[in-house]
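Severity: low
Component: inverse-folding endpoint
Summary: output formatting inconsistent between runs
Steps to reproduce: submit the following structure tokens with default settings.
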């Protein structure tokens, strides 16, 4: 990915949940250094990721303690963080529309 918007969202989250920091940094570094062109390319790196509609992908962070939803624009190599939260917070949202 050329750009991930916005890393500050991840920073704010790991300041609240310090046990997520290394996992989120690893996800960020992996995403930045990947040349994903399709959701299936993402699945090759993250086999437990869930592909949703509209180029959204859910990542399990720290053994599924946290969930990260990212909307991708593969053509322009952009990733937009739509949600990061605990598993229970994730259960309260509509992942396809957030």
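Observed output (run 2 of 3):
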């Amino acid at each position: 990915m050329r750009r991930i918007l916005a890393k500050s969202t991840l920073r704010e989250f790991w300041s609240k949940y310090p046990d997520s920091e290394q996992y989120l940094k690893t996800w960020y570094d992996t995403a930045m250094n990947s040349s994903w062109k399709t959701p299936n390319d993402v699945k090759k790196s993250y086999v437990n990721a869930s592909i949703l509609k509209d180029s959204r992908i859910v990542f399990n962070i720290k053994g599924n303690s946290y969930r990260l939803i990212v909307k991708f624009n593969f053509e322009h190599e952009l990733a937009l963080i739509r949600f990061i939260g605990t598993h229970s917070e994730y259960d309260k949202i509509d992942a396809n529309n957030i």
